[in-house]
Amino acid sequence: DVVGEAVRSTLVGPLSNRGDLTVAQDNAERAVVEAREALGDLLGAAPDGVVFGRSFTQLTFDISRAMAKEWGPDHEVVVTRLDHGGNVRPWVLAARAVGATVRWVDFDPVTGELPTEAVQAELGARTRLVAITAASNLIGTRPDLPAIAAIAHDAGALLWVDGVHATAHVATDVPASGADFWVCSPYKFLGAHHGVLAARPELLETLRPDKLVPSSDA
């Protein structure tokens, strides 16, 4: 099929760092651009806002560290007890490193639901980010993301969504969900074992990740 041929030609053809001087560079450039377009199509997101990483967890660690450079003791991060550890521990560590406070949201142990009101109760003017799952990896609970996004944005906070288990099972529209960041794992839907983040390009441009001097922020 077309996809299989594209993968085969990429793997067996000349390949190098991205660029436009050689066939190998052209192949690498095409592979990255087409992969971003494919994920953007799947997620309803801008291809220029698609970022690849080693895994969901590693992307969360990397971006949380970049975000935390702008946090301090007067700031708070909200996480939930419904979430996988990959969407909790990175935020806890990032907050701890800069003295920010972590606030926890509990889910209803009887229904398995995460009430929007419970999230709202932990939000305030100090909140910088809310990290939440689109679908629980353990019990399948799907919080009301648009409602949670609305209250997070009203508080001046960003919404980081673990879309690992949702993306594989339901149609995904990142802008409609209200998520500022949507992160998923292509191996959950027959792709490679890595992580993919989707966000608005202009939002990503505000981040300053740790990097070597010759590397650009892009």
Question: What brief labels describe this structure?
Answer:
single chain, 218 residues, seven-stranded mixed beta sheet, 9 helices
Task: Characterise this structure.
The protein has 218 residues and is of the alpha/beta class. It has nine helices and seven strands, in the order H-H-E-H-E-H-E-H-E-H-E-H-H-E-E-H. The chain has helices at 2-12, 23-43, 56-68, 89-98, 116-120, 145-154, 164-167, 174-177, 201-204, and strands at 50-53, 76-80, 101-105, 127-133, 158-162, 181-184, 195-199. Strands 1-7-6-5-4-2-3 form a seven-stranded mixed β-sheet, sandwiched between helices.
Q: What layout of secondary structure does this protein have?
A:
Layout: H1 2-12, H2 23-43, E1 50-53, H3 56-68, E2 76-80, H4 89-98, E3 101-105, H5 116-120, E4 127-133, H6 145-154, E5 158-162, H7 164-167, H8 174-177, E6 181-184, E7 195-199, H9 201-204
Parallel strand pairs: 2-3, 2-4, 4-5, 5-6
Antiparallel strand pairs: 1-7, 6-7
Helix pairs in contact: 3-4
